[in-house]
Structures are given as C-alpha cells and as structure tokens.
Amino acid sequence: MQSLPVVGAVKVYVNLEQLRDSGLLDTLAESKAAEDPDYRRFADDIGFDYRADLDAVAAVFVHGEVYAAARGRFDWKRLSEYARAQQGMCTNGICSMPTGQPDRVISFYPLSTDVLAWAVSGNQQGVTMISPPRGKNGITVPASAFWISAPGTDFRDLKNLPAGTQSFLTPLAQAREASFSVQAAAGVSDSPDATFEIRMDVDCASSDSAAALARVFTSTTDVLRTLVVKEGTAPKRTDLTAALVSGRFETHDSLVTGHWPMDRRVIESLVSEQTK
C-alpha cells in the first residue's frame, strides 16, 4: 500500500495468506468470478494460480483508474511474452498492453523480486505512478484478511446500492475517512460462535461528530433488532441478519469503531448464492 498513489483514493488490501490459512480462500474460489474464462486463459498462459502463487494484493481506485501491487510468485518472462502476444510491448522493463476499452491500457513491471506493480489507466506507462515507498507517508493497514478504506465523500452517491445499505452507509459521507476490515474473531469478539469479525473505523471531524455518528449506527441496529423480534423467529447464525443485529459501536475522541461478529457460514452462504 505504501507504494501506491493513495491521495483521494479508495484503498483495498487483501491478505490471501490469511484467507488460505483459514480455509476461506477455497470457498471464495468457488465463485463464478474466480473461474472467469478470460482469467482462466490468462492464468494458463503465464502459469499462474492465484490460490497458490499470490500472497497479498494492495490496490487503489482513483478517477476511474486502478493501481495495484501484488506480492507473490510471478514468472516475468512469461508475463512479458503474454503482453507481446496481446499486441502489447515491453520497453525498459515496463510492459503495456491494450484492454477491452479503447481509453484504457494495462501496464506492469516488477517492483521487487516478489512484488508486481500494475495499473489500468489511460496512460501507456501509468504503472510508473507506483514506486518504492521510500520517504512516503505511512498508511496503517490492520492485520486482517480484507481491508477497504475510502474518503467520506465517496459515500455521498450510493444510489446503486440496496436501499437498506444506503441508509446504513450514507451517514459516513460526513466522515473524513471510513474503513472496514475482516479478521479472525479469536480474541476480538464476545460471541463464542463467531469465527470472523467485521470491524469499522471512522475518522470524524470532531468528537461531537463521532458521538452523533455512533448514535445513528446504534439506532439503525436497534430498529433492525426490533423488526427481527416482531418477526417472532430468531435469525439463524448462518444468516447475515444475525451478524447485523449483533453490531456494537464505540467512540474514542473523533473516532468511531464498529464490530460485527460473524459466523464463517454467513460468508459461505453469501458465496454460495453467487454461484447459483
């Protein structure tokens, strides 16, 4: 993450080693997206299997462009041959090739022996925006399997999300930055049935703003919990609703944290729905 152009960007970090160790990666690999034919052809051509060869990915999304650094095991010779085979070119250690969009180019180069830098942008050498992190401001990425962080302004237009999600996330538009992470629940959750926990960290403009935001989330959770009670049937531990009603929120000066313990079967169920 330190090597990427992060200012004003949506930032994502995925720790595939953790996902692999937890057994969750095999579950996620069953999704249709993981077996996309284009990806499959690409992986076969360069001899790459993300389930075994990829350890972590840091990526940022800004102004419609993508910049990423991937840590793992890559065959540079086969990667460069693939770029040339796709009507691309390699010059001075940087390769580029066209995408399916006329105004977008994929470019990449080895940032180090085990880190591949790549970009999808309008610049044929857009990947040069990625460089070693010497002297750059630090970004704290938690020790989690998945982490995403975005400026509050990115939560202002959520019309493409489900209505329930919109009402939950819209208050974040007033924050400076909001992040969500997924981590193992051991030692961080009071729920004995939880195997994972979703954590939210929100940086607000002031302690008063943080307190107000915490009240909004608490109120929304209470309303959902009341609706569940009215239904007369407790949600199964494998249902997403069970995780949502268990949310709890705290404030520390201008920071708001949220915690949702989650049974791994909730994730498995969601993935299963996507594969049908």
Describe the structure in your own words:
- The protein has helices at 16-22, 24-28, 37-46, 50-53, 76-85, 163-169, 207-231, 240-244, 264-275, and strands at 10-15, 54-62, 65-72, 89-91, 94-98, 105-112, 115-121, 146-151, 177-184, 196-203, 248-252, 255-262.
- The chain is α+β, with helices and mostly antiparallel strands and 276 residues long.
- It folds into 2 domains: 10-129, no CATH class; 146-275, no CATH class.
- A 12-stranded antiparallel beta sheet has the order 4-5-6-7-3-2-1-8-9-10-12-11.
- The protein is globular, with a radius of gyration of 21 Å.
Estimate the global geometry from the Cα principal axes. Answer: globular
- Give the overall pLDDT as a whole number: 82
The main pleated sheet reads as: 12 strands, antiparallel
Helix-strand category: alpha+beta
**How many strands appear in the DSSP assignment?**
12
* Count of spatially separate domains: 2
Give the percentage of residues in beta strands.
25-35%
Give the % helix.
25-40%
Q: Order of strands in the sheet with the most strands?
A: 4-5-6-7-3-2-1-8-9-10-12-11
